[in-house]
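Example with several molecule types.
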Amino acid sequence: MLKAAETILRVTEKENISIVQAILRLSSADTGVSEAEIREKMHGRLLAIFESVEDAAANTEPLKFGQIPELNFGGDALSGEFILYASKTAIQVSKHNATMGRVVAAPTAGSCGILPGIFSAWKTLRAGEDWEEQLTDALIVAGAIGEVIAKRATLAGAEGGCQAECGAASAMGSAALAFIRGGSCETCLHAAALTIKSLLGLACDPVGGIVECPCIKRNGMLVANAILAADLALAGVRSLIPLDEVIDTMKEIGQMLPPAIRETSLGGLAQTPSGIALTKKLHEGE
Amino acid sequence: MALWDIVGPVMIGPSSSHTAGAARIGLLTKMLWGKPVKKAELYLRGSFLDTGRGHGTDKALIAGLLGMRPDDKQLKNSFAIAKESGLDFAFYGEKVIGAHPNSVRIVIEGDGQSLETVCYSVGGGLILLHKLNGARLDISCDLPTLIVSAEDKVGTISAITGYLNNCNVNIATMKVSRESRGGSVTMTIELDSEPDDLLLSERILSLHPAIKSVRLLKGVL
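Resulting structure tokens for the full complex:
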């Protein structure tokens, strides 16, 4: 398994290859699967992601906690078009997950809206004809960041809070975006680091123990962190703390989080007066 | 975990542990039963019991017993499909001290036979077959796995491994444990590849008189 983002960087520098080539080389050496087959698998994942986006857009099933309105931001919205598109899609896919739709856990089901939101926005608003190959490469970059997080820290809300799920997905998406926009390997790592730094300490406190509140909207919000971090990194902003150390910090902070806000629903939003009332209604309805 | 595990699995939501993992558990149990499931009793424990309803754990388990994979779009309709297919099922809760928080005991009956599995959903959609008909196995079921029960006699292990060698199949992991000296032995042998031989289980069964039963479990991914 990829143990350090630093390793990827060193390989790109030593072999004078791109971040994608470095990741494929490392992954192939690690798993024994050929680079071509790895690309093929990731391409399959990309298509599954876009299928989930399509299915999600057509999904009208109600959530247990009520309907989210059809999102029309109007021409005066403050956020840019890219963020809004990504957010809307992320919410749809996350909602689709909550109503037992088919999704790609990227890296988890709880955070499954973030990468689709970001990738969908790119495909629709920016990409050219080569989007399929380009986004397959981007997904490989995203996967590698996720793999380092899984190895150094965790991807489970029960262990690391929402930092580990939505935080990880957001960092993965940020690195992917920096890559697609032509950023160097270093820039991609900075984008991921900046993203995680903005989300350290994020609690996992699902109301009623189900993956709806605040999960769905967290998916919708955290695309913004990813997108902005990519823009910042591409504009030359550097994370003073390297990505591997930021990930280690995320792990540490996760361990410091009280179990009540680590996917137990015993604290945080789940235990607000409103959260408790919603939970009661949920159980009565079952 | 490789790149395609991080971006993956493709699954029915909402939860990798409570939905996807549960579906795999159901599917594994069905595969062990080896034929259509007609009657099943499911005993939910821990978090599966407490939050399972909201995560569709019950629907996922039944979907698995019907043979659906964890990414089957029909998973959410499993109860109705079960009714149409003649699968009779009932859910219960049970408290077991020391049980994994996401675990379930499934009892299947039919044609005068029965099967019991205890499985854990350990996260990320991964599962562990903890017990099979009371025997403790603790296998992950990612790889094709031979489950052998035998009497504790000299030559049983080498007969099996020698045969696998002849089939050119590599052993990934192997666990051998016995209840008592000279008593019954359980072997779980994880294989790197699925053997070509469709009659493998029968052939291994005939290798040594002390070998009592052989099951080949294909990877449940």
